[in-house]
Specification:
The structure is a homodimer. Chain A is α/β, with parallel strands linked by helices. The radius of gyration of chain A is 21 Å and the shape is elongated. Chain A contains 11 helices and 8 strands. In chain A, strand 2, helix 2 and strand 3 form a beta-alpha-beta unit.
Chain lengths: 292, 292
């Protein structure tokens, strides 16, 4: 890899640039972003130069598209005629099926692999970029065809992913989206709905009297809808299905509470405890990964 | 206050004993608990002696009932004939209306004030007790009659509450329970229902692919139903109403998602962001309180 083009030099794109450098990458890093972001990214030493989209696409061995989902799809469509046949095109969108579909329509076979690094932080933008963002984090890859991952160019890219500290995982785009609906998009909706309901109940702000878990349960609700609009738009069916399955449990809980059917509630608590306990184990494991 | 009787020498009862000592209390601390707990509490230096329930009640200036809610109600009923008319009886139950009703039925007027320290940790039992548990924490008080708090004996007790670092707040028992349903009991159900649903979806444990907020959203789900059974049992109507109001927002979200009505979802996110942002401010404030 001699030239990397990063589309969208924000938190993720900027962090990947910094992480590559720290991992020993000594080729060129070209940024494609708004003039303001390019200026700031140059100032911060995150990229080597800025370039227009088509020019960057025609020069790059690795095209790294780190924009919002709908913009990723538009970028793929527009740069497709300019991408070299030995290049790797990848992205970081939070849903994968729509992006993989667009890529397989517009890009030559074998050039594209969808990506989703499970990394982030509260701040956004290139100012928040840091070389350690991917350290110990799972990075999901969704190839267009399962065999693609064996391609030499993909394997070189995967080596860089590992060098920046991430843990690559390969799965099908539709499986990714179904799982993410349950483990990421539904928790977001749960937190948002809870916080919205409490905002309605307490328009003057949170009451002094609240349990220790309320901060945990409303933290995700700080997320702006700007990020989530595209996610819901491109994963509507899975998110709807997850929400329905969850509301069925809430209705069970409500009926059991109303009728005082303690054994039914106890059974729901028991299943929940089991999952929550394995989440804790899992988190400990992934923290360990930070040091291996 | 020369003699404090602590009913239930667990995390809260034991911590109050340790906190009193650390704050300079030099009277007697009598524990009422199972023989095993009394032995351990003596070993750990948490209490000065153990005593049977009636004997402890007749000796104490301050009766501190730190048991599960249904046991608190039973203890109040049983010790009532033995409590001195100058004593203060208080409790730490997570719901207040049922306890205040039992106390006003059984105890002489002016003797009882309901209490709910907003403190806790994951571990339970006297082994987990620590003198700092109440530091910077809100401690809600729900008197039988508003005027009760002016009583000399209550004011002396309140001074100890402040000396152990807590921030006393006085409110009506029914207001307490309505608020707690929204800010504590509903978040618990939300976390439990989410974790139960994910346990059903992933019987083999959490998938590698999950958002950064899933640990936050399932942390409360570790709570055992043993603690929650009494809470739901004594706050059924408020918890049901809170759950219904919340499910109404979830149905709105579901309909808006299914129909792609982005402005409706955006409005729910905006209200949620507002609440979540004030939660953060509130938390910062209460952390500041730790140092004042």
């Amino acid at each position: 890899v001699r030239t990397v083009a990063i589309y969208g030099v924000g938190l993720i794109g900027g962090s990947f640039a910094l992480a590559l450098r720290k991992a020993g990458y000594d080729g060129r890093i070209v940024g494609v972003s708004s003039p303001l972001t390019i200026a700031r990214a140059l100032e911060l030493g995150v990229i080597d130069e800025g370039a227009p989209p088509m020019e960057a696409a025609s020069q790059a061995d690795l095209v790294f598209v780190a924009q919002p989902i709908r913009v990723i799809i538009e970028t793929i469509r527009r740069i497709a005629p300019h991408v070299g046949s030995n290049a790797v095109v990848t992205d970081v969108g939070s849903t994968k099926a729509a992006i993989v579909a667009a890529a397989s329509e517009h890009l030559p076979a074998g050039v594209f692999v969808g990506g989703h690094p499970m990394a982030g932080k509260e701040e956004r933008g290139v100012e928040a970029a840091c070389a350690e963002l991917f350290q110990g984090r799972v990075w999901a890859f969704t190839p267009v065809q399962a065999g693609d991952m064996a391609r030499t160019e993909f394997r070189q890219f995967l080596q860089w992913v590992e060098r920046v500290g991430a843990l690559p995982v390969v799965l099908d785009a539709s499986e990714h989206d179904r799982t993410a609906a349950l483990t990421s998009h539904l928790p977001q909706l749960a937190s948002t709905a809870l916080a919205a309901m409490l905002q309605d109940a307490f328009p003057g702000g949170p009451p002094t009297l609240h349990g220790p878990g309320l901060a945990d349960m409303t933290r995700l609700a700080r997320s702006s809808f700007d990020i989530w609009a595209d996610i819901f738009d491109t994963n509507r069916q899975n998110v709807s299905a997850a929400l329905e399955a969850w509301m069925a449990i809430l209705r069970d809980l409500h009926a059991a509470l109303a009728k005082g059917r303690e054994t039914d509630i106890r059974s729901i608590f028991a299943r929940a405890e089991l999952f929550a306990a394995s989440m804790r184990t899992r988190r400990t494991e992934s923290q360990d990964n930070l040091f291996t």
